[in-house]
Structure formats: structure tokens, C-alpha cells
Amino acid sequence: MSAGAAPTYLAFDIGGTKVASGFVTLPASANANAGADGRPEVTARCEIPTEAARGGEDLKNRIVAFAVRQLERAEAEGVAIAGVGLAAAGVPDSETGEIVSATDILPGWRGQRIYDAFAAVTDLPVHMIGDVGAHGLGEATYGAGRGRGVVLSIGVGTGIGGAIVVDGALFTGAHGVAGHAGHVPSALGRGFLCSCGTLEGHIEPVASGTGLKDLYNARCDAEEGEPVADGSQVAARAAAGEPLAVGVIEDSARALGECIGGMGNLIDPDVIVVSGSVVKAGPLWWNALRAGFEDSALQLVRSAPLVEGELGGAAPLIGAAVAVRRHVAQGRP
């Protein structure tokens, strides 16, 4: 790569249902905008199914094989790859490349040594961070949080995750778990099983996409309604005016907003970026989210805008690329 050229990284987003990949070209300067819209370019996007039931060892091996195919594609297309960035589900150790914690969504994923596996197929620098952290880093650097000093990123999809980015750097905490927004206490979640195993009341099992379904079906039993298969059906019924669905959307979003307000009181962010499939539930959801936030947040914290993420599914890939670029810039292997 010539001096001053925009670097391209091979990035991966490893989730519970799919592993996405792409070539991410970042601006030549880490402080510059990319293109007319200020965003990096993501090309060669493709994915493979996670097939979590096959186990963590199998998943690791298929990711490495996927990487080999992508590197061969880059060579064939004349794309110079400067490094490999990984956005991984669970809690990865960025220094050692080991997955130090993971839920039952990915059985056998904990303990996998990812850097060792990549070292067998490439000499390129490889760097891994958490998938939700990568999402937040992408939005903070090139998306809805760009130009802000303290960014709180909340992802509301199948589950709920979060990330804290301070002056462009991802804050991970003492054990790598900072930003686990789905595991903030909420009275609405009491009695609903969280992915972490507790029934004591976390927000994820009632405010994620899966949580919307479970909350609706629990109330549906009492009202002899028709159960739903997923959260999108709850949103559709709410949009059609069904009272039960409207109540579920409002209660769930308000409870999540209250939790975000509490997070805001602790972190004092400049902006709160909310992304994921559930944010497409419409104005009813957003209005309830903001109402809950305003009820819970301190007066000075209420000035932090709640905005929708801009990068969509590319955010973790972009964040992974940003992370490996900084890793290389620090002179790390």
C-alpha cells in the first residue's frame, strides 16, 4: 500500500445466526471523512450461517476457511488487505485472541483461540473486539455519533447490547463487559428468562425483538389472543391499532428508555445512538422510548439526543476495521 493511500481491511461480524464479512476501505487519515457522505466504503459483502449447534471449534474453523476465501478474492481483484478485523459475539480478549465468555447461544465458543487459528493461514495483523463494541465504534467514528466526545451506543435486535466510546476509544471495563445494556435491571423483566440465566428482571428479555414476542405472548395468554412468532409481528399488529400490541410496544420501549436514562446518568454521554431491528417499530416505539428516557434521566443528561444509527448492518464491519487500524498504528503485530 502506497503512502497516503486509503487502507482496506478484511472485516468479520460473528453473530449467533450468521457471520458477515466485507472489505472495508477507510479514509487515508484516521481523522478524515471518507467520501461525500463521510463513510468508509464496504465492498465484497457476503456471509455464511453460524450454525451454532455444530459447536465453537467448528465455527472457528469455518470462519478461518471463510477468511481464506475472502483473501483469495482480494488477491484476484487486486485489493491490498492491510489487516483483519473481527467483531465477535461473546467477550473476546483483544490481547490474546481468546473468547473468555459466551452464552449458550454459541455453545463451545468460550475458550476458542481465534488468533492462533488465523496465524496458521495469514501473516496479516489480526485484531478482535466484541461485536456490539464494534457496532458502537463504527457509529461513533463514522456514523450517528461522529464528532462527539462520549457516545453511548445501544443495539436493540434479537438481544440488547451496548458500547461506550470515549474520544474515539472503546471503553471495555475491567473484565471486558462494559456496555452490556441488556442486563440492566428492569421491573418489567422480572420473571422472564434472560440470556444470562437470571429471572430476576433484566431489560433484554422484554425489550429485545425476542423480548417483544415473549412479552406479547405472555399477555396474550391472559387475554386469549393469537400468539406471535417474532417481534416484527407485534410491531405490525401495533401499527394496525391492536390494543394489546400497542400496550406491549409502549410498555417495552418505555422500560428500555428508563434503563437508558439510568445509563445516561452514570455515563453522561454527548449522544445516545440506538440501532437494530427493533428501532424500525415506528413512532409509537420511539415516542415511548424517549418518554421513558426523559422520566429517568437527570435534567442535564436529558439534553443528550437519542438518535437512530446510520450505518445499519455495516457498522460492526466498519468498527472492526477501525479497531485493527488503530492496533496496527500502535505497532502491534
Your description of this structure?
It is a single chain. The protein is α/β, with parallel strands linked by helices and 333 residues long. It folds into two domains: 8-139 and 313-329, Nucleotidyltransferase, domain 5 (2-Layer Sandwich); 147-309, ATPase, nucleotide binding domain (Nucleotidyltransferase, domain 5), CATH 3.30.420. Helix content is 37%, strand content 20%. It has helices spanning 56-77, 114-119, 131-142, 204-207, 209-223, 231-239, 243-267, 283-296, 315-329, and strands at residues 8-14, 18-25, 41-49, 81-88, 91-92, 99-101, 126-130, 150-156, 160-166, 169-171, 271-275, 306-308. The strands form three sheets. It has a five-stranded mixed beta sheet with strand order 3-2-1-4-7, sandwiched between helices. A five-stranded mixed beta sheet has the order 10-9-8-11-12, sandwiched between helices. The protein is globular. The relative contact order is 0.15. Mean pLDDT is 93; it is low at 32-36.
